[in-house]
């Protein structure tokens, strides 16, 4: 995406922008990974302490003979596990994300390693907590065998919480590099990815605590010293843990869903506002990633449609293009009353002989630009470029209130602007008016929009007469009579029979500027 949503390219402001440098991205990802692992383990440690001290008070782990386990062995292992976890995690990240650190495109092997990196980091955490389960259960069990089931349950439950949180945190932190892998074409879609995340949230937030509650009740049933108060406290603590961890995991899981949806919604708002220069960063490997890919494909299609519309409009005129896109064009036409302006260059052959082809094209393009500007500013259609001549229509395909007045005004402006902007060329300009057939002419495989009728011939013949004095466009009497505006600046010049026509034409010329 562009600057508009740069801070949320990956669904969260914490992940930075897609335009961020590789160095800054590496620092950001490493910091997020370290913070994620530390936070997940702190939550797990808190759960373990709460369960061991309050949730399942008996048998107690705070016996005097366990002082060396509680105050030496456990803290030493926790500190060592933190260091080992962070060091191993950093080594895994450096090895699997070397391509990203070096700022190069990933290979297929790099992509596979990157896609497996979250699981490798999670396996490290799972291994450390599995080791903790074995070590602590053994230590406490050697001194008091009654602590074996309690220790095993507490450490295992805490480890499951840590592993689940770590996976969600790590996947979140690695979104930027996942986006690079996906954009490089190595997208491996996870089947039912959203469902898997929901199952993880349910497992830790509901299933494990409920199993824990059942085990606490079983401990109470088979242990005669357990009071009703002990059972109540144990069940209450587990319920509170379930509420807290369930809420946390639900928020994390929902954030994984709302992030991509929010980016799509924001981008859709920009597209609705007319901005199709939008490309979402695809960073999710689940069904939500399919949504992002589909949105990008849709916007690409819209951009292509706009480009084709613009190109089509440049060839046939924007009004004709709009009409064709609104409905299927058909061969044939309808009668319309229009004004026609015909502009023909004087001495084009002589002019071309003294210039190179490139120079001729450059001059003609400047000549045509003057005509197009004047015609389109008055609602007309430049219908054809016939060599070095131009045919413009006023009143079709879009109806105008005063087509004759618009044509007369455009003719005078073209004549005056050509003198200033294209002094290398001069042209005869004629204006005709009357009934024509306007529509699509040709074959169903290839046709064009045009007008056919006497006014077209009339304007062409008048342009021939106008070549005697290119500064004064000529118009037919019918055009002058039909005009609401601009007719007052034209004066009657002659009555003549134009070439190829049987009846006489009253000819008017634009008055010379004072």
TrEMBL record:
PROSITE patterns: GUANYLATE_CYCLASE_2 (PS50125), HAMP (PS50885). GO terms for cellular component: plasma membrane. PANTHER family: ADENYLATE CYCLASE, TERMINAL-DIFFERENTIATION SPECIFIC-RELATED, BLL5647 PROTEIN. Belongs to the adenylyl cyclase class-3 family. Keywords: Cell membrane, Membrane, Transmembrane, Transmembrane helix. Residues 255-307 form the HAMP domain. This is Adenylate cyclase. GO terms for biological process: cAMP biosynthetic process; intracellular signal transduction. GO terms for molecular function: adenylate cyclase activity. The keyword Transferase does not apply. It comes from the Bacteria. It comes from Gordonia rhizosphera NBRC 16068. The gene is cya. Residues 339-463 form the Guanylate cyclase domain. InterPro entries: A/G_cyclase, Adenylyl/Guanylyl_Cyclase_3/4, HAMP_dom, Nucleotide_cyclase. The chain crosses the membrane at residues 31-56, 68-94, 119-140, 152-178, 199-219, 231-252. Pfam families: Guanylate_cyc, HAMP. It is a multi-pass membrane protein. Coiled coil: none annotated. It is found in: Cell membrane.
């Amino acid at each position: 995406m562009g600057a508009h949503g740069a801070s949320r390219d990956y669904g969260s402001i914490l992940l930075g922008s897609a335009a961020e440098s590789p160095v800054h991205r590496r620092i950001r990802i490493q910091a997020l990974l370290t913070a994620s692992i530390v936070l997940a383990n702190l939550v797990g440690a808190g759960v373990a302490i709460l369960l061991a001290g309050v949730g399942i008070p008996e048998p107690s782990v705070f016996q005097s003979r366990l002082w060396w386990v509680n105050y030496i062995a456990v803290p030493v292992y926790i500190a060592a596990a933190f260091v080992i976890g962070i060091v191993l995690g950093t080594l895994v990240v450096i090895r699997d994300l070397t391509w990203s650190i070096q700022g190069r495109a990933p290979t297929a092997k790099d992509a596979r390693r990157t896609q497996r990196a979250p699981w490798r980091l999670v396996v490290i955490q799972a291994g450390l907590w599995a080791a903790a389960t074995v070590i602590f259960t053994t230590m406490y069990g050697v001194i008091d065998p009654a602590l074996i089931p309690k220790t095993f349950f507490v450490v295992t439950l805490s480890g499951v919480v840590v592993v689940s949180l770590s996976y969600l945190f790590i996947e979140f932190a690695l979104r930027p590099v996942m986006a690079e892998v996906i954009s490089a074409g190595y997208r491996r879609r996870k089947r039912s990815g959203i469902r898997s995340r929901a199952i993880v949230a349910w497992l830790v937030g509901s299933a494990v605590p409920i199993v824990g509650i059942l085990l606490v009740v079983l401990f109470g049933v088979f242990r005669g010293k357990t009071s009703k108060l002990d059972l109540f406290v144990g069940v209450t603590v587990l319920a509170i843990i379930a509420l807290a961890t369930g809420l946390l995991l639900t928020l994390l899981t929902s954030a994984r869903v709302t992030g991509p949806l929010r980016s799509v919604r924001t981008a859709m708002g920009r597209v609705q506002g007319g901005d199709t220069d939008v490309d979402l960063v695809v960073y999710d490997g689940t069904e939500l990633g399919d949504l992002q890919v589909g949105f990008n494909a849709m916007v690409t299609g819209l951009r292509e449609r706009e480009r084709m519309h613009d190109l089509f409009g440049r060839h046939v005129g924007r009004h004709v293009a709009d009409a064709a896109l609104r409905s299927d064009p058909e061969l044939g036409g309808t009668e319309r009353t229009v004004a026609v302006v015909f502009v023909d260059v004087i001495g084009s052959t002589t002019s071309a002989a003294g210039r190179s082809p490139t120079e001729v094209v450059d001059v003609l393009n400047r000549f045509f630009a003057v005509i197009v500007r004047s015609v389109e500013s008055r609602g007309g259609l430049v219908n054809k470029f016939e060599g070095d001549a131009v045919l413009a229509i006023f009143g079709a395909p879009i109806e105008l209130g005063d087509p004759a007045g618009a044509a007369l005004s455009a003719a005078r402006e073209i004549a005056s602007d050509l003198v200033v902007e294209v002094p290398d060329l001069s042209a005869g300009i004629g204006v005709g008016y009357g009934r024509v057939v306007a529509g699509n002419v040709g074959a169903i495989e290839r046709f064009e929009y045009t007008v056919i009728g006497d006014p077209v011939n009339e304007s062409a013949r008048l342009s021939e007469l106008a070549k005697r004095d290119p500064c004064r466009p000529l118009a037919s009497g019918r055009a002058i009579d039909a005009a609401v505006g601009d007719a007052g600046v034209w004066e009657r010049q002659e009555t003549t029979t134009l070439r190829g026509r049987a009846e006489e034409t009253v000819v008017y010329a634009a008055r010379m500027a004072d």
